[in-house]
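> example.struct
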């Protein structure tokens, strides 16, 4: 995280990089090769391995240094991920898949102190999310799969201070999660499946207070 004071505003950069690998083995129907299979009529031990995961995120934002009556922030966000995973079903050759996900967003938020007691806030975000799946190795041939979507998210909120340690608040917001691809069925000779984007509009209202001197 890097911050730079520009006087009337602050410039902030947040960068992150993550990589990992691992594997796990389980019997999906509760049976085993010694006591016999479960409801699947053959041994069903499977191994899943994360061969490679790399994720890079970068956020840049500008924020005002003034707290009242008007404050704001605006910025951009970038996400890039590569995931290579192998599923070994035990009864067929292992399947290796490559998942790629790239997403970016622009966002902004502002707050206005309309009076000594009332503060109004609003935020807006636009997100572009793209995912791709391709087969690296498998006995089941599968064409590459791609999904993408672009959606806005937003929120409106208000806070009213009844006293120094007592306030009322209300908020309405729209959230968004991009589409997804599930490719594990390729290892079991099925097609990859996809899920559409998910959106939600939430409402919230309540009372906040601080007791016993915080």
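> example.seq
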């Amino acid at each position: 995280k890097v911050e730079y004071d520009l006087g009337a505003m602050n410039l902030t950069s947040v960068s992150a990089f993550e990589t990992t690998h691992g594997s796990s083995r389980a019997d999906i129907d509760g049976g085993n090769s010694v006591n016999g299979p479960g409801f699947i009529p053959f041994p069903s031990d499977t191994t899943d391995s994360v061969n490679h995961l790399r994720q890079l995120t970068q956020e840049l934002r500008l924020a005002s240094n003034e707290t009242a009556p008007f404050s704001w922030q605006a910025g951009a966000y970038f996400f890039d991920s590569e995931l290579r995973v192998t599923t070994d079903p035990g009864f067929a050759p292992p399947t290796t898949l490559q998942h790629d996900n790239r997403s970016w967003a622009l966002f902004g938020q502002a707050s206005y102190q309309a009076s000594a007691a009332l503060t109004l806030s609003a935020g807006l975000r636009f997100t572009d999310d793209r995912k791709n799946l391709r087969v690296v190795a498998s006995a089941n041939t599968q064409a590459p799969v791609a999904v993408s979507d672009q959606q806005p998210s937003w929120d409106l909120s208000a806070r009213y201070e009844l006293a120094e340690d007592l306030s009322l608040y209300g908020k309405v917001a729209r959230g968004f999660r991009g589409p997804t691809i599930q490719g594990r069925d390729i290892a079991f000779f099925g097609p990859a499946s996809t899920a559409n984007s998910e959106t939600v509009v939430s409402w919230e209202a309540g009372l906040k207070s601080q007791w016993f001197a915080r």
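> remarks
The longest strand covers residues 45-64.
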